[in-house]
Amino acid sequence: MKWIDRCQRVYVAALAMALPLLAGCIEYRIEATMNADGSGVRHEEMIVDDDEDAGIDMSRADFAALMSVTEKHRWTYREQVEDDDTVHVFRRETRIRDIASWADVSDDVHIAGATGASAASNVGHISLGDVHFRNSVRVETGRVAEGTSFTYRETFYWNNLPDVLIEYFAQSFVHTMDARYPDLTSEQRGELLGLVRGGLWSATDQGLLEAGDDEEEALVSAFSRRTGIQAARIVRQSYPAADEEFFENLLRELYEDDEDRLDDFIERKLPGVQLAINCAIVFRLNMPGRVTASNAHNREGDTLIWEFGPGDAATAPLEIIAESIVRK
């Protein structure tokens, strides 16, 4: 179920019914500049090209709603041609008055997993309307011996993404149990559901969603074996002949076979997740004074640069940190 890698296939929306279908990666460029007085400016640009065949159809309104690039959110839109390819460009500029106002750009990066009817539906106890990719900004300043210090932190995180994936798998397992063992009690069914949820959360905490092939295989084998043994014990209360090996194989088969069905589920029910996974973020930050520390991936002169995607924050928040000092 390494769906994050699989979802790199492009399923980008049509921006309008009259426009050609879009495809290719979504490039989300953010550049923030902070001044010595705490004020600043934040430029955002989202670029989508249509140089390949698109995988799904979506109206411009739906795309804008999922990616939060509507006029309501202060975005502008234009179409341009680059190297014979049509490029769709969304832009927004935000002026920051002072240090405290940097917090106001929290949630400006906001990709909804679902909107409309899909957002009102559930997978188990998880509402699809509660799946979101967001940002949170915090800027601090203080006095130090050399002058004034500034600390910039921006966190990118998901609400309920691992939760909905785990719940989807757990519900698939229990539905299979319902068909094969119809006389299971509600208590036994609940135990099985909790067992699979717990096992998947444990594997996820150990790195399942971002693991390489060998590590993923080891984690899946351990999860299937351990959970299969416990599942057999539960089912034997009503079906004494239940076999541990059957459950172990079933869990593995569901994990491996669910990939196509999971892709289909995400495409139909969580199109915002599909768009997010196809989004590459380039974040540029200009701090006042001399930069004393950062976790930037690169640097061009005084500009700090990070490159990542929403998928990188699937299981844990991704944080941008930079510190600087403005001398007296």
Could you explain the architecture of this structure?
By secondary structure, this protein is of the alpha+beta class. It has 2 domains: 3-160 and 271-327, no CATH class; 163-265. The chain is 34% helix and 31% strand. The protein has 8 helices and 14 strands. It has helices at 3-6, 60-67, 116-119, 161-180, 186-205, 213-235, 244-269, 271-277, and strands at residues 26-34, 40-49, 76-82, 85-96, 110-112, 122-123, 126-127, 132-144, 147-159, 279-286, 290-294, 298-300, 303-308, 318-327. The strands form 3 sheets. Strands 3-4-2-1-10-13-12 form a 7-stranded mixed beta sheet. β8 (132-144) and β9 (147-159) form a beta hairpin. α4 crosses α7 and α5 packs antiparallel against α6 (213-235). The radius of gyration is 23 Å and the shape is elongated. The N and C termini lie far apart (55 Å).
Can you give the mean pLDDT? Answer: 88
When the domains are counted, the total is: 2
Q: Report the major sheet.
A: 7 strands, mixed
Task: Report the strand count.
Answer: 14
Shape: elongated
Please tally the helical runs, counting DSSP H or I stretches of 4 or more residues. Answer: 8
Order of helices and strands: HEEHEEEHEEEEHHHHHEEEEE
Query: What gap, in angstroms, lies between the N and C termini?
Result: 55 Å
Low-confidence stretches: 1-24, 52-56
Helix percent band: 25-40%
Strand content: 25-35%
Structural class: alpha+beta
Q: What's the assembly state of these chains? A: single chain
> Which radius of gyration do the C-alpha atoms yield?
23 Å
Q: Order of strands across the biggest sheet?
A: 3-4-2-1-10-13-12
